[in-house]
Design a protein that fits this description.
The protein is α/β, with parallel strands linked by helices. It has helices at residues 9-35, 52-68, 83-90, 104-113, 142-147, 153-162, 177-189, 201-210, 220-228, 252-255, 279-293, 296-304, 314-335, and strands spanning 41-45, 72-76, 98-103, 125-134, 136-141, 168-171, 194-197, 215-219, 232-237, 267-274, 308-309. Strands 2-1-3-10-4-11 form a 6-stranded mixed beta sheet, with helices on both faces.
Amino acid sequence: MTSFTKIPRRTALAVSALALATAALSTHSAFAQSTWPTKPVRIVVPFAAGGTTDILARAVAPELSKAFGQQFIVDNRPGAGGNLGAEIVARAPNDGYTLLMGTVGTHGINRALYPKLPFDPIKDFAPITLVAAVPNVMEMNAEKAKALNINSVADFIKYAKANPGKLNMASSGSGTSIHLAGELFKSMTGTYMIHIPYRGSGPALMDMVGGSADVMFDNLPSSMQQIKGGKLKALAVTSATRSSALPDVPTVEEVGGPQLKGFEASSWFGLLAPAGTSPDIVNRIQQEVAKSLATPAMKEKMQLQGAIPSGDTPAAFTTLIANEHVKWAKVVKTSGATVD
């Protein structure tokens, strides 16, 4: 005969109450996921307006607004090489209403470059999707390049070696791919340029066009208009292959000789949410981004700016981020780059 232990009435009531509370919480969670979003969603851009991170965020935000029936608002929070904006999102509630347009800097480079980060780029975020990858472009103020008779990468190296420290190198901030591409170039060629970090590509480009900044390894989309307008001279792209947006511009490796063999420093940009964000919300955002990036209009818009649209899965984006940590840690070590 089976015997049962009699549960005290008070304990039984407590168990029942806990079960009801758990069920209610589950129902509430499921309801919240199915009705999200019920208010505007913020996309934090950790750099100033006008750069590629900002351009891409403003390209996908209207598409997400249309898809979900709520406004997706771009919020520029520049500073500390993207770390300020990234920290804001890392510390935000994981309810799907605060997202980050992360970059190779915030989620690939900075862990190796900064002695201490106020967030963990792996543990504190839920990757949603890679939005686009872009080459960087080595460029000069067109008038200065003409005055110094610099028409190629070889000319640039010759001048920089003969005049160490006379040229300055603008970047969108310490630790960005723009900064690291320049540091890698300096270490491989034995040249020296003074690094001037800005709070984004937009402010840096203003000084490039104005003539107070000499050279920059900018993300191609943010510089495309000034290159086509003749204000900036594109010497080379930093990707392994030429860009279809600037087919006549060679790669750094092509024209840099043996000293620049293997040079490659491209950038990427993707959406992330705070860790613990519902997989349902993450997947819904990823699917809508992928859908919008696959449209002919968006493809053309991206490609004209030199960006390669993606829209991959959260799992694929997670793997990319992990691999980028390894790659850029080596670049930081090789180049001797520091936060200055």
